[in-house]
Amino acid sequence: MDGIGSETASAAAPLSQWQHDVSRLYQYYLDKTTPHAVYRWIGTLFVLAIYALRVFYVQGFYIVSYGLGIYILNLLIGFLSPLVDPEMEVSDGPLLPTKGSDEFKPFIRRLPEFKFWYSFTKAFCTAFVMTFFSIFDVPVFWPILLCYWIVLFVLTMRRQIAHMIKYKYIPFSLGKQKYGGKKASASSGISNDD
């Protein structure tokens, strides 16, 4: 009895080690892509284009595309939302300023950009693989799904924009602000003397 159990354990050990090595190698390359946001998104747009061409070519899998659209909308809401929603909870952590006298605190996303990109890309890869299995090709009238998704998108974004306006935050950073410096003050000083 002891011999049988040890044989299966020793047979499973190399498989487990190989799985661990592959996982570490995958994580290594994933970590190396972190600072290259533009190239990551270009690759994702390439994956998106391949998926769109596949769906267009086979003229099907609209329910997969609809589910993908709902998932992407959910990711987008997480990407545009603050980590701590001032409407839902009061905490001692970083909060968004609500008055001009409040201290400035940077916008911290509920879903960081890297995780947004990673989930976005995985979703398109998964949907692409699903297009090779006919079980997922449920016949539907796609214009209805498209209209319904557009309505969901508009209603969701209207609510999100109203939340942004109410709590005065912008989920995008356009970089460090640049001020005119001496040139702007010198030119305004000259015009005041005239």
TrEMBL record:
Membrane spanning residue stretches: 38-57, 63-84, 141-158
Compartments, record wording: Membrane
Pfam family, one: Rer1
This protein's GO CC annotations: endoplasmic reticulum; Golgi membrane
Role description: Involved in the retrieval of endoplasmic reticulum membrane proteins from the early Golgi compartment.
GO biological process annotation, one example: retrograde vesicle-mediated transport, Golgi to endoplasmic reticulum
Topology of this chain in the membrane: Multi-pass membrane protein
Keyword vocabulary terms for this entry: Membrane, Transmembrane, Transmembrane helix
Protein name according to UniProt: Protein RER1
Keyword Membrane carried by entry: yes
Species assigned in the record: Cucurbita maxima (Pumpkin)
Matching InterPro entries: Rer1
Gene name of the record: LOC111484302
Top-level taxon in the UniProt lineage: Eukaryota
Family: Belongs to the RER1 family.
